[in-house]
């Protein structure tokens, strides 16, 4: 990511959902009926930037396969607000047809908010092609993008056993080395989700060891709590015994 503008998002990691900042469509209250796809579809090709953005945002709320080709095209729009809206819309309207376009835009988009949306979309699409781009984002991107890449990798539970196996090591690496506590916490959560889908093998043991290490050694109390929560949900006997012993000693 040598040519990416690292100033687009600063190190104050945005913990909100990627969709939170989009707000209601066209200022309408959240209780209003969803947008009409028949009205929104033509606007996806509008020459007016504001109309393209509002139409793309509409498909963050509604699902319609007819919008997918247009949303793919809008990933390359000149306006970042249109691109980020299209990215989230493709997360709400998952399609195998969109994966390559999302990955391509993730690898070249200069805007951190857009990349954050693209990572979120890749997670929601639950496709094996997303695995290595998400791992790369977890390892190399700015904090806000790494945060969502860590969470998105938990969706590999819905892809394949092989994807889960490939996801564990970079999440352990992120849990041990990322300087941002919120990202380490997301790595812990994802490791817990993935470990629950594994048999008791060496990869499973590595995930448990990584979570135990974070529970015992991480400097941030929130990360330790999230690692503990992940271990409790996995239900690993060795980890449960350790947690019980430490709690009896008043350590935690």
TrEMBL record:
<feature type="compositionally biased region" description="Polar residues">
    <location>
        <begin position="7"/>
        <end position="19"/>
    </location>
</feature>
<dbReference type="Pfam" id="PF13646">
    <property type="entry name" value="HEAT_2"/>
</dbReference>
<dbReference type="InterPro" id="IPR004155">
    <property type="entry name" value="PBS_lyase_HEAT"/>
</dbReference>
<dbReference type="InterPro" id="IPR011989">
    <property type="entry name" value="ARM-like"/>
</dbReference>
<keyword id="KW-0605">Phycobilisome</keyword>
<feature type="region of interest" description="Disordered">
    <location>
        <begin position="1"/>
        <end position="41"/>
    </location>
</feature>
<keyword id="KW-0042">Antenna complex</keyword>
<protein>
    <submittedName>
        <fullName>HEAT repeat domain-containing protein</fullName>
    </submittedName>
</protein>
<dbReference type="InterPro" id="IPR016024">
    <property type="entry name" value="ARM-type_fold"/>
</dbReference>
């Amino acid at each position: 990511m040598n040519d990416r503008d690292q100033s687009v998002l600063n190190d104050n990691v945005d913990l909100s959902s990627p969709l939170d900042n989009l707000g209601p469509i066209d200022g309408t209250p959240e209780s209003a009926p969803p947008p009409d796809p028949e009205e929104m579809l033509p606007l996806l090709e509008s020459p007016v930037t504001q109309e393209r953005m509002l139409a793309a945002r509409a498909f963050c709320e509604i699902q319609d396969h007819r919008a997918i080709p247009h949303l793919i095209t809008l990933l390359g729009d000149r306006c970042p607000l249109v691109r980020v809206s299209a990215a989230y819309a493709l997360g709400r309207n998952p399609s195998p047809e969109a994966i390559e376009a999302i990955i391509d835009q993730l690898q070249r988009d200069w805007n951190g908010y857009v990349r954050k949306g693209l990572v979120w979309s890749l997670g929601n699409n639950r496709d094996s092609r997303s695995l290595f781009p998400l791992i790369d984002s977890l390892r190399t991107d700015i904090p806000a993008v790494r945060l969502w890449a860590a969470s998105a990798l938990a969706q590999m539970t819905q892809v394949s056993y092989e994807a889960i196996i490939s996801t564990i090591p970079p999440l352990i690496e992120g849990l041990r080395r990322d300087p941002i506590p919120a990202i380490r916490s997301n790595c812990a959560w994802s490791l817990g989700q993935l470990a629950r889908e594994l048999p008791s093998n060496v990869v499973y043991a590595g995930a448990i060891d990584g979570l135990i290490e974070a529970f015992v050694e991480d400097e941030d109390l929130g990360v330790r709590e999230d690692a503990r929560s992940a271990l409790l949900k996995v239900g690993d006997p060795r980890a449960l015994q350790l947690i019980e012993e430490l709690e009896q000693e008043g350590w935690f």
